[in-house]
Amino acid sequence: MNREIAWRLFAGEYNDSNLEAGGGGERAPTYVVTPLGARVNRLFVVGVLTDVENVGTDGQPMWRARISDPTGTFHVYAGQYQPEAAAKLAKIKPPAFAAVMGKSRTYSPDQAKGTVYTSIRPEMVKVVDENVRDYWILEACRSLKQRLAAMREVQGMDPLTKDALVALGYPEEAAEGIVSAVEHYGKADLARYGSLLAEALRYLLPEHRAFAPEEPPPAARATKAVSKEKAREPGEDVEEKVLALIGELDKDGKGAPWDALLASAAKGGVRKEILEEAVNELLDKGLVYEPVLGRMKKI
Question: Domains in the chain, start-ordered, CATH in brackets?
């Protein structure tokens, strides 16, 4: 049997998936099919490991880890059948940049409700550096861009068949994934995934956000004046201010208390709703995490 490719896939797309395909024979691979048609048996993900917890027992541990990328969070589970990965997770002290290679998995706690959760069963876990994480983001962006382009091309096809896609030059595996995705999910929300791609690229290329809200690009200044309310929308300057506050208020190493962060931000002219948006942006970027409820800590 050929070894399945390891997809570079963002959590934002993977966690939207609820279709499992394949698995017809004893050794036949199973796939998680994403809304954009990726047939995922294995993944390679890189992000910030923000949390590791033994959700099993001391005698039979099951390690659960969370790895964040710019679009969301992957959930990783390793137990007795993944001894090397489990041992590695047990030794990593969050936060840390980590790479995980593993198999795709879905879980439905209530078949009647139809809720499906995705996870990764790791084959390999490795601590990496920020450069590896950034390169992975670039590769995941390239992969997402290809699937977006394919979905845009096929949306007008009627009927949409695997043979028709192969005739257009799509590989059989890609054609099968696209057809399965359209049949199961319907018309994909390309605007959402386009925004996801843009956000990931902006994370890699901060110069795309070089203009602060108070100083919009020349074209914007030429067309209309920016209102005071607009100038207070969260941007890089607000995020940097909030990030600095989190560091200053983390006096005991356990994270900055939310109440203290809220009070300090208010003194600096940052409203509660703006603070919450800025913190959410920092969480999504993997720059901060929540070690315990009500405390924020810098990575």
Answer: 6-191 (2.40.50.140), 218-298 (1.10.10.10)
